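User: Here's a structure from my thesis project, written as structure tokens. My advisor, Dr. K., wants to see whether a designed sequence matches the one we expressed. Can you design one independently, without my sequence as a hint?
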């Protein structure tokens, strides 16, 4: 059993990537509210996994969010820290390759870093924690099917708690702070990294959508992976338009963007389902830039890559088969925002569970109630 210098039990949030934080921070805040719980929290941050540039961003976020933290360089150094300190709980956001090497005294939990709709989130290695928290009935069913011996608790989707509670997002962007027009409707474009629609948006699309504010929130990998430099060049061109705000890598959470947007435009990303849970319209781009290794005789690779778990809920949104169709579709969704409301509400309950702002409450209830 681990103790801090004050004698409290230790709960560590394992953060190899910046984008784990939006799911962890609501849980941390809930733990803070229970000052008499006998637990202290720590964020274990990794400096070499995404490189020094992104470690600097993570350091800035940790300072702004006032997160108690410690730095290690690699997963192996992190494991050595766990062996030395033996925390009561270690909270992960994804699979952990050293799971079987963790101290026997430590319990471990997984709070998936994103909406667990994709089948990858149901792999056996993502199930073998002391407890695996599920975001809703669908994921709970898939986890039980994948690894029946696992211990699963359906809690909901903690990342969205601040929005459902109406809490301010620290340092969160607003229409005014972004330098946009408060009298215009705001479109949030949040593409994934691959396969993505981003490269098929023309350089002049801000001009064609001049009657709207355009907020672009790229995937983290668009900034971190060398192979997506063409996407970064496209973003640089869009930045020059007066009605565009392109998020930087330091804008690590989608929450302030969700709060300010009237419509989300995306491709096959879990962001679609997170935004739809707020009962706002979503436009799903079916036009995608594919490498030659995913076209023609290799088209089967694309089919294999496209997650069938996501596609079964594709009618949560209106689909844009071509970029040329996008403007009229967006205008129609803004004019008729309730058009897909039934699907949004139904699927949100199935995929993200209870949307009452208390998923983090249920997570902390379990962690505090189940320890040596």
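Assistant: Designed independently from the structure alone:
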């Amino acid at each position: 059993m681990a103790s801090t210098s004050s004698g409290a039990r230790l709960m560590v949030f394992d953060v190899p990537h910046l984008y784990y934080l939006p799911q962890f921070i609501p849980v941390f805040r809930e733990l803070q509210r229970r000052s008499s719980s006998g637990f202290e929290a720590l964020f274990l941050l990794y400096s070499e996994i995404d490189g020094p540039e992104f470690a600097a961003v993570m350091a800035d976020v940790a300072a702004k969010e006032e997160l108690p933290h410690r730095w290690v360089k690699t997963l192996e150094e992190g494991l050595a820290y766990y062996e030395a300190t033996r925390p009561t709980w270690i909270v992960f956001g994804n699979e952990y390759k050293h799971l079987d090497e963790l101290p026997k005294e430590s319990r471990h939990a997984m709070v998936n870093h994103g909406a667990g709709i994709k089948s990858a989130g149901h792999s056996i290695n993502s199930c073998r924690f002391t407890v695996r928290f599920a975001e809703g009935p669908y994921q709970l069913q898939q986890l039980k099917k994948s690894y029946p011996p696992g211990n699963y608790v359906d809690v909901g989707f903690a990342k969205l708690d601040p929005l459902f509670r109406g809490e301010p997002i620290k340092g969160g962007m607003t229409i005014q702070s972004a330098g946009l027009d408060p009298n215009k409707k705001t479109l949030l474009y949040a593409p994934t990294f691959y396969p993505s629609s981003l490269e098929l948006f023309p350089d002049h699309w801000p001009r064609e959508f001049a009657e709207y504010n355009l907020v672009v929130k790229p995937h983290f990998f668009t900034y971190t992976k060398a192979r997506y430099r063409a996407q970064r060049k496209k973003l640089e061109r869009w930045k020059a338009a007066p009605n565009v705000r392109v998020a930087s890598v330091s804008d690590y959470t989608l929450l302030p963007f969700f709060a300010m947007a009237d419509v989300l435009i995306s491709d096959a990303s879990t962001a679609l389902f997170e935004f739809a849970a707020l009962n706002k319209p979503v436009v799903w781009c079916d036009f995608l830039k594919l490498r030659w290794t995913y076209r023609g005789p290799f088209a089967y690779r694309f089919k294999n890559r496209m997650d069938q778990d996501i596609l079964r809920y594709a009618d949560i949104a209106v689909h844009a088969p071509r970029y040329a169709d996008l403007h009229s579709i967006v205008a129609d969704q803004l004019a008729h925002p309730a058009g897909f409301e039934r699907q949004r509400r139904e699927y949100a309950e199935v995929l993200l569970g209870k949307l009452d702002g208390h998923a983090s409450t249920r997570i902390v209830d379990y962690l505090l109630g189940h320890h040596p």
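When you compare it with your expressed construct, this may help: The chain has two domains: 9-157+354-369, 186-351.
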